């Protein structure tokens, strides 16, 4: 051990070695930073030797090999593009909605230039970022006013804190949902300072339950759209319109509906799901609604709050508005997305487009892929009918007919093949079903087909011998 410790060169000697300069130049790393990393690696090496985890090795070579690994990892991007071959359209782990071309163009334009984020070009004075997309949201939803925060969980917290802090907020027990990451409506309400008043049961809540719970301490009735699960059978829920009618018993009562998914396109017309459309919910006279930007809306992560002007104006002036505000790139992407709805071009939005693709269109895309893989002999390919999922905590009961290519080899297990595809460049994330790798072409674009082909080609070169 002592001999190994003595064999570690001092820092100044390592700095004078040609490898130091070569690595500094290769990875474009400042010498000071290089030295700092080098010190940490040597300290780690000492600890390994003392612990008895390192024996009989070329210390000098080990140091530089380890430095190469560290510098390579340091320079490597952590947020990477992924090909979604799972068939889950709004895959939460893969970033949910893919942005439209127009939204991407708007982000690039705004990110690469200065912008009028908080500047009124007409007056030359300071402006408000709330104005950027408010008119668009009003146009596509019919709301009196609107604003945007950084996600819908933030919107729920914000609204409850602003209007329900220290007061009672009534909610059905059947709507105390848990969303992704173990965030619960009940916990968010507690953190906001609102006093939760539960009414009804898990499967049944009646209008009389809400009426009986009203008191001088009640500030709000909250309705939560259960977008990530569905209760069937012996059930009853109170409509938004019925909740709005409760105002006749308490004039200052606020009726707020958390819509979650954010539907601006009526998918029921295509026979897909039963998601409430934001415009129709607002027509009931509800005071406030909130919904996500990156789910069925098909835009960036955002929490959109829309409703009556008197309440939105109060939110805009609230101290939390600054805490929860979004940046210029999110606004740019959201503007590009909303413009598609305003111009009746919702089908240009990838999330909407992929949900509405006919099975014939998906089959045609899969056939194009099969025509390109005939030269790869390691794999066996088969076209099969499958069902795609919407995902993103929306439409849990909806299955969309789709087409997949089923892949297997005589050499690799399905799990090994899936692992190899996932770890490749680019990463291809597949679905494992019935001990086979599935490539669901509802979520694979035409432009991604050559990349998937190349991924399989690399695997064949590795394993064919």
Descriptive labels:
41% helix, 465 residues, single chain, alpha/beta, 19 helices, globular
Please describe what this structure looks like.
- With 465 residues, the protein is α/β, with parallel strands linked by helices.
- The chain is built from 19 helices and 16 strands.
- α12 (278-282) links the parallel β9 and β10 (288-292).
- The two termini are 42 Å apart.
Structural class computed from helices and strand pairing: alpha/beta
Name the shape in a single word. Answer: globular
For the secondary structure, the number of strands is 16
Number of helices: 19
Euclidean distance between termini CA atoms: 42 Å
Oligomer: single chain
Radius of gyration: 28 Å
Give the rounded overall mean pLDDT: 91
